[in-house]
Amino acid sequence: MARRVELSWGLFALLVLAILLALPLGAGPYAIRLAAVIFMWAALAGSWNLLAGYAGAVDLGPVVYHGIGAFGTAALMMRAGLPFLVSVALAGGVAAAIAFVIGTPTLRLRGAYFAIGTLALAESAKQLALAWDRLTGIPLTGGSAGISLPLSAGYLPFYYLMLTVMACVTLTALWLERSKFGYGLRAIGENDRLAEASGVDIHALKRRVYMASALFIAWTGGIEGYWLSYINAAEAFGTAITFQMVVMALLGGLGTPFGPLLGAAFLTLASEFLGTRFVYHYLIGIGLIIVIIPLFMPAGLAGLVRLVRRERPLTA
């Protein structure tokens, strides 16, 4: 029975993927753009979920790698003359390398100390980016004015790029669900001291997943920057991006593969619906949603889906 359920869900996932791949053939520009935005936020929230949801380390500075990905991609395209996809890939590698350097000392912090340390890191990175051109004399971030990139070739390529990154994040989370590496991370999340006493190399495991999270976030930031054709340090390194990552992961279900996708889709669609009907007051509704869902559904939307599946009668 268990294998049959797994097979049915695997086929369902393949069906959904096929529909998403074919969606641009029959949907209008607005629907495709909205779907690309959902994929973008699902990739960001899912990347944050890899560390916080599985290893229990609440990172409040993931936006650092979003900014590195955006400005790194822009610099490689405009200064080095590299193609867009090559620039995104290399910017992600740079972000992962920086995550290794930063994560080696900071991931030894526990609990609130790690959260506060990463939050301070994000604010420091934003101030450095704003002052970079003035301090170094190397034009890179454009200061408070930001930088403009060449106009992109429409929205369709970004739909597939964001879908690809989201799929990579989701597949990584699914792998963590059943791999030895993932079991080690969950042991760390449950009780890191006990896991360490049991022989788990908690620092190495957390650092690896931290680097993977940074890689995916940087890819998303680089793709988004070229899509918008404008990057501003105050926004690319802004805490609002971190806030949305965290809220979407929590609404969807922390520590679940599909929770961030559910949270991203729900909050993006809710914001779009309420924003077009209550222009001046829609944030009140969004705030109520953010409060009510965790209050009545602590496991998030993914927990609600599991509950419905569990209560559904089985058939032969």
Q: Mind explaining what this structure looks like?
A:
By secondary structure, this protein is mostly helical. The chain has one domain (29-311): ABC transporter involved in vitamin B12 uptake, BtuC (Orthogonal Bundle). Helices cover 78% and strands 1% of the residues. The chain is built from 14 helices and 2 strands. It has helices at residues 2-26, 29-55, 63-78, 84-106, 112-136, 156-178, 180-190, 192-197, 202-228, 233-236, 239-252, 259-277, 282-296, 300-311, and strands at residues 147-148, 230-231. Strands 1-2 form a two-stranded antiparallel sheet. The longest helix has 27 residues, at 29-55. 41% of the residues are buried.
Based on CA inertia axes, which overall geometry fits?
globular
Mean pLDDT: 87
Tally of domains: 1
Gyration radius from CA atoms, angstroms: 20 Å
Residue share in helix: over 70%
CATH architecture: Orthogonal Bundle
Described by strand count, sense and barrel closure, the largest sheet is: 2 strands, antiparallel
CATH class call? Mainly Alpha
CATH topology: ABC transporter involved in vitamin B12 uptake, BtuC
Order of neighbouring strands in the sheet with most strands:
1-2
Estimated structural class: mainly alpha
Provide a count of the helices.
Answer: 14
Strand content: under 5%
List the uncertain runs: none
The succession of helices and strands, N to C, reads HHHHHEHHHHEHHHHH
Q: How far apart are the first and last residues' alpha carbons, in Å?
A: 9 Å
The counted number of beta strands is 2
